[in-house]
Amino acid sequence: MKIAISGASGFIGTNLSDYFKKNGNIIVPINRFLLDDESAEKLKEALSDVDVVINLAGTSINHRWTESYKKKIYDSRIFTTRRIVETINSLERKPQLFISASAVGYYPSEGCYDEYSSTKGDSFLSDICYRWEQEARQVSASVRLAITRFGVVIAEKGGAFKQMTLPMKFKVATVVGPGSQSFAWIYIDDLVMAMKHIIETPSINDIINFVTPEHVTNKEFTETIAKHRKCFIRLTIPQFFFRMILGKASSVITEGQCVIPHKLLDSGYKFIAPTVEKLADILYNKHG
User: Fold this and answer.
1) Are 180 and 217 in contact (CB under 8 A)?
2) Which of 4, 162, 192 is nearest to 96 (CA)?
3) Domain containing residue 45
4) Residue 37 sits in a domain of what CATH number?
């Protein structure tokens, strides 16, 4: 199988590329040069004989949201997706499947939601996710569309988890105030295998929540990991600290979404790390 990936050199893209390559697939990286206006024909050529396109492109949201950075967040998602979709639609031989990333930030921070919930939040991130997904929906009806709403992606040596657990090296566990906010997450190996599951399961389409089935708060997640890391100091960092550093972008940390992965569960996907306890066992028991 030939799989094209935008954002192939990023944290998630690298894990996906490595897995699919090891299993005999050909990876076609869609780099930023292919997405330039001058490279329209080169992008068309790159996508002309692929079976699957996975769109992961998007600059980090973990940055103070100045007006210029908001534009960067917007452009890196909306315009990139638009360019890829327009190219797919122009192909004579179209891919069988287009997987386009989104995020659980689409949902409000109050309540609990699954893929069949139409409720959208009213934050900047909710609006970005909505517009991002609308661009993906412009793909040809002959192409199966999967929109994957990611929770926080957890991996031992990358992503947000590395930053979250940095104080634990000194036996200090830090809870993000207030601590009661929902924390929707997914283990990187589950993300990769769920992508494989989508590719191999033609009946799955449209919105798919990429989160674990267990609902936990930020405090519960941190306390469970801290127990396995044998942390003896617990600190709660108040919201205003994050607001001082990140401004409105602090809402990504101090607020959260309760999200249910009904489509993955209903289609028979078995999570590698369905709970925080299982995640901790995987990450730390292998070290003895």
Assistant:
1) yes
2) 4
3) 2-154+184-212+260-272
4) 3.40.50.720
Q: pLDDT band for position 140 (50/70/90)?
A: very high
Per-residue pLDDT band at 15 (split at 50, 70, 90): very high
Return the number of other C-beta atoms located less than 10 Å from residue 146's C-beta: 22
What is the domain count for the chain? 1
CB 8 within 8 A of CB 17: yes
pLDDT tens per residue, range 142-162: 999 999 999 999 998 877 888
Please give the backbone phi and psi of residue 243, each rounded to the nearest 5 degrees, phi first.
-65, -40
Structure tokens at 194: 């769920």
Whether 39 has a pLDDT exceeding 90, the answer reads: no
The DSSP bridge partners found for residue 182 are 217
Report if residue 162 sits inside a domain.
Answer: no
- 248 found inside a domain: no
Distance CA 139, CA 159 (A): 30
d(C-alpha 73, C-alpha 78), whole Å: 9
Hey, which bits of the chain come out as E strands?
2-6, 26-30, 52-55, 97-103, 112-113, 144-150, 152-155, 158, 172-176, 185-187, 206-210, 233-237, 258-259
Q: In the predicted model, what is the mean pLDDT of residues 81-93?
A: 97
Question: 288 falls in which pLDDT band (50, 70, 90)?
Answer: very low
Over residues 107-121, the mean pLDDT reads 96
Contact yes or no for 51/2 (Cβ under 8 A): yes
Which of 145, 146, 155, 149 has the alpha carbon at shortest distance from 18?
155
In a domain, 32, yes or no: yes
Q: Is residue 250 in some structural domain? A: no
> What percentage of residues in the chain have a pLDDT greater than 90?
86
Would you say 84 and 53 are in contact if contact means Cβ atoms under 8 Å apart? Answer: yes
